[in-house]
């Protein structure tokens, strides 16, 4: 479903991505972790080309996203993206946040889009908030709406860029629960996150990124109990010391 | 100071037909409003477009808008007016020139010049307000919109502009008030708007203080009403939960 081949990216002199190879198959849940500044956010943002790459190839659902001939908008419509800071549209109600892109990009009828939105809101437990505005919601609620907004495009893949990092601790659980349910429904997911409990429970495998490279890639039970690389060991020690 | 105030002057005959001085002020106010509204419409449309252009990734388009702003902001309004009124008509095609200079009512040709001048001048200022309004939005907004497959025009139309529009209402209100105040330059090329009528009243009646006091009061009331109106608009479009109520 997602394939990265020898992906490089430079920000001027900084080598942010250094020959990344990665495969995510249909229905798989992959967790990407690594120390801050390791390039994991940049990595996930290259997949729907919110970041361009300097070298290499990225394929999503059989389409080469780095090929200038690829219709990027059509591709992005099939790839859901959830941001660290939610990025809901503050001027629109919760319902309109969710229906905007199905109506405008997929040309779905308003009634159908609203029905879909209500179903999705129900799924993330926020049906009663459909008329609220984003600023009237808590962070956890906003992120759940953002997930519903992503799902409204009926994407083939969902990408999560540190979806719980900006949340207060007591709100992390509700967002992870939604993500867990989503994983169990068979959605193909790639998540940049430090929530190791989540990784352990639902990830098919964990990808450890450091200094722009995929250092280790393993099933969660192996990664957590028996990490191979020194940098991965160190990273896990630091996580546990909290 | 030995001055005989006479507030009844406005109801006295001007000596021309059966006009009283108040009629002059009413006619002047009409020109001022017609001028300011037309100039403001031009400024909003062109300034809005330029403001969007300045935020586009295309270097040619943003460069063009930047050049416009630099040109129109760095030349005094009065100089621009003289160029529009005295210079530009000489470069029109022969027929249009004759029409503009001779056949057209001189008041109307002055009106066209000032409206264009003031509209294009204010457009440069509106452009800057719109640009900063768009740039003040968090980058995540454009990202979120692009991530669901919106085209660039859709990103602007549905996500950036509705938010930027709300951000720029207060600075645009100032610009709107400036248009009314700046419209008084029209008196210098003979358009009989409010200030010109006040000057004429002062000259005809020798009641200088009354004439300019009334003009001042009219400008003041006009601008106060606009401020109130824009405040109402701002309140109407306020985003629930997001913007705190200010200035109460």
Automatic annotation (TrEMBL), chain A:
Gene3D superfamilies: P-loop containing nucleotide triphosphate hydrolases (3.40.50.300). Keywords: ATP-binding, Cell membrane, Membrane, Nucleotide-binding, Transport. It holds the Pfam family ABC_tran. It comes from the Bacteria. The keyword RNA-binding does not apply. Coiled coil: none annotated. One of its GO terms (molecular function) is ABC-type amino acid transporter activity. Belongs to the ABC transporter superfamily. This is Amino acid ABC transporter ATP-binding protein. It comes from Crenobacter caeni.
Automatic annotation (TrEMBL), chain B:
Its main location: membrane. It is a multi-pass membrane protein. GO terms for cellular component: ATP-binding cassette (ABC) transporter complex. Gene3D superfamilies: MetI-like. It comes from the Bacteria. The keyword Metal-binding does not apply. PROSITE patterns: ABC_TM1 (PS50928). The chain crosses the membrane at residues 29-50, 71-88, 108-127. It is found in: Cell inner membrane; Cell membrane. Keywords: Cell membrane, Membrane, Transmembrane, Transmembrane helix, Transport. This is Amino acid ABC transporter permease. It comes from Crenobacter caeni.
């Amino acid at each position: 479903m997602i394939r990265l081949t020898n992906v490089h990216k430079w920000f001027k002199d900084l080598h942010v991505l250094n020959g990344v190879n990665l495969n995510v198959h249909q229905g798989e849940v992959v967790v990407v972790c690594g120390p801050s500044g390791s390039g994991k956010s940049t990595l996930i943002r290259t997949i729907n080309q919110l970041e361009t790459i300097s070298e290499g190839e990225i394929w999503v659902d059989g389409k080469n996203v780095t090929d200038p001939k690829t219709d990027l908008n059509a591709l992005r419509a099939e790839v859901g993206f959830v941001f660290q800071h939610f990025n809901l549209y503050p001027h629109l109600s919760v319902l309109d946040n969710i229906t905007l892109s199905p109506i405008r990009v997929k040309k779905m009828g308003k009634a159908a889009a609203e029905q879909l939105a209500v179903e999705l809101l129900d799924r993330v437990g926020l049906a009663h908030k459909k008329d609220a505005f984003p600023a009237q919601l808590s962070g956890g609620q906003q992120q759940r709406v953002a997930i519903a907004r992503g799902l409204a495009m009926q994407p083939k893949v969902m990408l999560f860029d540190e979806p719980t990092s900006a949340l207060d601790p007591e709100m992390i659980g509700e967002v992870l629960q939604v993500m867990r349910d989503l994983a169990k429904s068979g959605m193909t997911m790639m998540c940049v996150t430090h929530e190791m409990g989540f990784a352990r429970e639902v990830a098919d495998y964990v990808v450890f990124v450091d200094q722009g490279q995929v250092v280790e890639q393993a099933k969660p039970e192996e990664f957590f109990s028996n990490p191979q690389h020194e940098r991965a060991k160190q990273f896990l020690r630091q996580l546990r010391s909290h | 100071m030995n001055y005989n105030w006479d507030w009844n002057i406005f109801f006295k005959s001007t000596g021309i037909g059966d006009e009283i001085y108040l009629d002059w002020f009413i006619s002047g106010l009409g020109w001022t409003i017609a001028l300011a509204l037309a100039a403001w419409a031009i400024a909003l449309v062109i300034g809005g477009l330029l403001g969007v252009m300045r935020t586009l990734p295309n270097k040619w388009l943003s460069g063009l808008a930047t050049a416009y702003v630099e040109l129109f902001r760095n030349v005094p309004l009065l100089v621009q007016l003289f160029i529009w009124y005295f210079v530009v008509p000489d470069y029109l095609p022969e027929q249009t020139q004759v029409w503009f200079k001779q056949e057209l009512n001189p008041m109307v040709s002055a009106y066209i010049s000032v409206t264009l001048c003031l509209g294009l001048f204010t457009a440069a200022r509106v452009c800057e307000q719109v640009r900063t309004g768009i740039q003040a939005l968090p980058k995540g907004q454009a990202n979120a919109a692009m991530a669901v497959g919106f085209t660039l025009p859709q990103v602007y139309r549905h996500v950036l502009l509705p938010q930027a529009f709300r951000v720029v209402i207060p600075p645009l209100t100032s610009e709107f008030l400036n248009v009314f105040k700046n419209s008084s330059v029209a008196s210098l090329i003979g358009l009989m708007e409010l200030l010109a009528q006040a000057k004429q009243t002062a000259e005809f009646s020798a009641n200088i203080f009354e004439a300019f006091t009334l003009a001042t009061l009219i400008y003041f009331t006009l601008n106060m009403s606009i401020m109130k109106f824009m405040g109402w608009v701002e309140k109407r479009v306020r985003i629930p939960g997001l913007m705190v109520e200010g200035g109460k």
